[in-house]
Each structure stands twice: as structure tokens, then as C-alpha cells.
UniProtKB/TrEMBL annotation:
Stretches assigned to coiled coil: none
Protein name per its UniProtKB record: Phosphonate-transporting ATPase
Keyword Nucleotide-binding: yes
Transport as UniProt keyword: yes
Stored SUPFAM superfamilies: P-loop containing nucleoside triphosphate hydrolases
A Pfam entry, by short name: ABC_tran
Species per Swiss-Prot/TrEMBL record: Granulicella mallensis (strain ATCC BAA-1857 / DSM 23137 / MP5ACTX8)
InterPro entries registered for this protein in UniProt: AAA+_ATPase, ABC_transporter-like_ATP-bd, ABC_transporter-like_CS, ABC_transpr_CbiO/EcfA_su, Metal_Ion_Import_ABC, P-loop_NTPase
Molecular function in Gene Ontology: ATP binding; ATP hydrolysis activity
Key words of the record: ATP-binding, Nucleotide-binding, Transport
GO CC terms in record: membrane
CDD domains named in the record: ABC_cobalt_CbiO_domain1
GO biological process, one term: transmembrane transport
Domain ABC transporter: 7-250
Length: 263
């Protein structure tokens, strides 16, 4: 059964300053779909994410269309809650002095901390407890974010992104999620994301690390120089030949337990 698109981009060109970063890009992502956007640093992956979250806007042209969850216009605060965006950067200064549980609650308000003027309802607290369990963060409930390891912080930030998505077409947009994590933390993060994917949370992963691509992700979108150069199945695209062309160097690959590694 065909599901409605969550993300629909048609003939999108995006400039940053005087440079055009995305060139005539078209992409459709449907509800419940897991996919990875793969490409070298500087290929436009993060610009694409900012276009999806309406932080950047395309150059106006007659053929250009951007629809997110069926709508062309959004209040940015509402959209951030609905999309569940997890940025590559670790938490900012205000969030570091917030407990893990309160940091998840900030996801309802798209705020850096729980400011005194924010009203937290019982329903929000109930949802935050549910999310804390989903991300395996129970032991981090009362710990300050600034006292957590990078892996623990990333776990809480994923919970924060999920907080406001209950009852919606849930999707997590993850920008280079394994950045700044050691090998053990990377493994823990990937296993947590697998659990979320298996529970029906759609995963859109932006990465240049092949090992980040979860076994549940079947669709790969390859980007180079601001363009989509391939869009297909993991079996078709995750090959040494394809990756060597994408990254501009000789690459070898191996697979184990559904994960791929390249060198």
C-alpha cells in the first residue's frame, strides 16, 4: 500500500551566500520509510536537511515545490517538534545545566532549557517518561546533561527530538549522529536507533560513515556536489564500485550482521 509523502521536494535549488549549494534536487520520502543520505563532506547533505526543516528556502522558480507533511508553509517551532530533528552538534550551554528528563521536556517547546514561563502539562510529563524509556535513558533522568558522556547526550537529544511527535507520522532526522562518539558509544547509539526503527519510527539518516547505515535502512540516496547522483536500494548502491565513485577514491567493503564497513 502506498503511503503519503512526509517530504516532497521538486526541482529545488538552494543558495548560501553567493554560492548555489543544491542543484535541481528532487526527493520524495514516504511515511514509515527508512533511508540514508550518503555523501562526502561538503556535498550538500546538511543544506538539504535545513531545507527540509525550512531553515533554508529554495530559490523561487515556477517548477520548484517543497511540501512537508503535505503542507507548503509551516510555523518553524511546530515543524521542529513534528519532524524530530537531531543536529550533529552536541547540546548548547543552557541545555548542559538541565537534567536529562527536563531536556526531553524542552522538545515540546523547541527551547534550550525549561524557562520559568513554560507550562509543562501532565500529558507532557507522561510522554517524556515514555520517551525516556524508548531511548533507554532511565538512568540519565536526574543527571545534568553537562555531566553526561557524548553518547549519553546524544541519547537524550534523540529523546528530546521525539518528545512532541506522539500521535504524528513520527520521523527522526539525524545529521551525522555518530560524530564525537567513541566506538562503544557508536555501537550503543546504532542499537538504540534500530529499536526505534523496529517500533515504527521512520529514520532519515544523513551521514558519510557507512557503518551508521542501520540494517533496517533499505533505501540509499547518494549526493555529490549538491546533486542527487543515485537513489535506490542498499543492495544496489552499497558496492565498492559505487562508493569509490562517490567518494573519489578506491574503497573496499565488508558486511557483518547487516552492517557495512568501508576502508
Amino acid at each position: 500500500m502506498t503511503t503519503d509523502p512526509i517530504i516532497q521536494l521538486e526541482h529545488v535549488n538552494v543558495a548560501r551566500g553567493n554560492n548555489i549549494i543544491l542543484h535541481d534536487l528532487s526527493l520524495t520520502v514516504r511515511a514509515g520509510e527508512h533511508l540514508a543520505i550518503l555523501g562526502p563532506n561538503g556535498c550538500g547533505k546538511s543544506t538539504l536537511l535545513k531545507t527540509v526543516t525550512c531553515e533554508l528556502y529554495p530559490i523561487v522558480s515556477p517548477e520548484t515545490q517543497v511540501h512537508i507533511m503535505g503542507r507548503a508553509r509551516w510555523d518553524l517551532t511546530e515543524l521542529k517538534r513534528r519532524m524530530g530533528v537531531v543536529a550533529a552538534d552536541l547540546p548548547g550551554r543552557q541545555t548542559l545545566t538541565t537534567t536529562g528528563f527536563d531536556a526531553i521536556l524542552t522538545g515540546f517547546f523547541s527551547s534550550s532549557t525549561l524557562w520559568p514561563n513554560l507550562h509543562v502539562t501532565d500529558a507532557m510529563r507522561e510522554r517524556a517518561e515514555e520517551v525516556l524509556h524508548l531511548v533507554g535513558g532511565e538512568k540519565l533522568r536526574d543527571k545534568f546533561v553537562g555531566e553526561m558522556s557524548a553518547g549519553q547526550q546524544r541519547r537524550i537529544m534523540i529523546g528530546r527530538a521525539m518528545a512532541g511527535t506522539a500521535g504524528e507520522a513520527q520521523m527522526l532526522l539525524l545529521d551525522e549522529p555518530s560524530n564525537a562518539l567513541d566506538l562503544a558509544a557508536q555501537r550503543d547509539l546504532r542499537e538504540m536507533l534500530r529499536g526505534l526503527a523496529q517500533k515504527g519510527v521512520a529514520i532519515l539518516l544523513i551521514t558519510h560513515h557507512i557503518a551508521d547505515i542501520l540494517p533496517e535502512i533499505e533505501r540509499i540516496v547518494m549526493m555529490r556536489d549538491g546533486r542527487i547522483v543515485a537513489d535506490g536500494s542498499k543492495k544496489e548502491l552499497l558496492t565498492a564500485e559505487r562508493l569509490s565513485g562517490l567518494f573519489g577514491g578506491e574503497i573496499h567493503m565488508t558486511e557483518r550482521d547487516g552492517y557495512w564497513n568501508a576502508w
